[in-house]
Amino acid sequence: MPSKFRPELTDTGLDPTIAVTAVDEYQNVREMHIADERPLTIYIDRHEIVTLMTLGNFPELLALGYIKNQGLISDITEIKSVQVEWDVNAAVVTTFSESSAWKENLGPRIITTGCGQGTVFGNVLEQLQNIHLQSPLIKQSTIYQLLKNLNAYNDVYKSAGAVHGCALCSSAEILCFVEDVGRHNAVDAIAGRMWLEDIPGQDKLFYTTGRLTSEMVMKVAQMRIPALLSRSGITQMGLKLAQDFGVTLFSRAKGRHFLIYHGRDNVVFDVGLPAPLASDPPVKADMA
Amino acid sequence: MPSKFRPELTDTGLDPTIAVTAVDEYQNVREMHIADERPLTIYIDRHEIVTLMTLGNFPELLALGYIKNQGLISDITEIKSVQVEWDVNAAVVTTFSESSAWKENLGPRIITTGCGQGTVFGNVLEQLQNIHLQSPLIKQSTIYQLLKNLNAYNDVYKSAGAVHGCALCSSAEILCFVEDVGRHNAVDAIAGRMWLEDIPGQDKLFYTTGRLTSEMVMKVAQMRIPALLSRSGITQMGLKLAQDFGVTLFSRAKGRHFLIYHGRDNVVFDVGLPAPLASDPPVKADMA
User: Fold this and answer.
1) What is the ipTM of this complex?
2) Which residues, other chains included, contact B280 with Cβ-Cβ below 8 Å and sequence gap of 6+?
3) Tens of pLDDT along A24-58?
4) Whether the predicted pLDDT of A15 surpasses 60
5) Which of the residues A153, B54, B170, B174 has the least number of beta carbons within 10 Å of its own beta carbon?
6) Is B119 close to A110, i.e. CB distance below 8 A?
7) Least CB-CB distance to A261: which of B22, B38, B113?
């Protein structure tokens, strides 16, 4: 099995926003950009798996990551190609064997979670039961530098809103940034890239603008990434899973602020912050 | 068939937040509240339908609304009872006939959309094809009063974040406000209440803190509500569906600001706004 093997991929990423007009409170007609949203149906060897609504930025990586994170296929060398055709909104994943062995991984049960009512095939939870990640030490100064570096991203969000952004980070460096109309899609596209390029997770940090619900933490743990940073809040089950998997969990990470909900011992406080100003905004729920 | 018929419901709404500690950037340990998130598996007559992750505030209404919005059962008098037992995280919907006729409505196809990767059973789209709603005239002053009235809500969001809120409104009056970890759950719970209490949609207005993706607009159209107001942004497909169904669409509604993306002719500009101040914040993407 060649270590450098990669499936053949089309390259059909689309322009993520379109221009439309809206009328504001002054009755002014304004040209606005809004996020695109289109269906993408994923097939494995002619079997229809799911239809995702996506921005369409990285459809091939999304298809790969979805298959990986749902536990349908675990070895990338089984995949011959991923071909996306927007004419028919299809991402066709072709395997070498066409064995349909992946069908066993669909399991009997659909669990839907998080912000929407997403699907996680039943076997994923089982696969995750034995995960215990080892978080590296993370410096406060690295967090601040990373948050600063992230300001250069979020392009679609800045122009159109209605998307969430996710980043795969090595220390303060952003290796990969993906936005999508679905948080889970953005995570899946990054998982697709990691799978494709054989990028290990254990020395990485994952950032998301979105909330840390159970499914987000599960997906990050599946990618073996031991540290998770969110601009938004967390839920009780997101926290519980982070504790179970050993994921260091930062929420409300923005500017100089953050809250560590799990893994405080993995954080090195190397920045001598001045005492908080009376004018300092409190940590607050600025984005669900 | 008695017009006042209602299924028998348990009343098992839970406290939506729990207290946990977190460590902030000053190494201070702070007591925070986070949103609860727990699985709820919906059964119809012993058939497992889906597992949703929910805040657990209105589980009976969520189960009802999910069944209604997925097009599984359309007549509430077919439903004998909805019983939620948190011991086993189950919402058991019992029908009178136990005919399993609803199974035909499951359809062959699962479409997953929006923020997460939610499921919409295939037949829903068909059912919606002939919907053309008639929006009433909506006054700008009513919008402002409604936005003001909404400030009294969003309790969970204010204390814990990580949830979205949805409201069913009659003019500026808020009839029902639901928060959930999933936007779609909050919409479904409101749909459940409308179904249960036979509340018509055509003279109502729907508010959400969440983004207007395709699935949100579809659900509001299913409830026959002709006007949709969001604090957040919209996607291209959310806009397209609003145009198709005739839903008047406001986005970025906050304070005095809003943007009308569809149905401008249904809005009466009855507020003489002063010219915008230079210090006025622009309409911006403050919440995905």
Assistant:
1) 0.85
2) none
3) 999 999 999 999 998 898 999 988 888 888 999 99
4) yes
5) B170
6) yes
7) B22
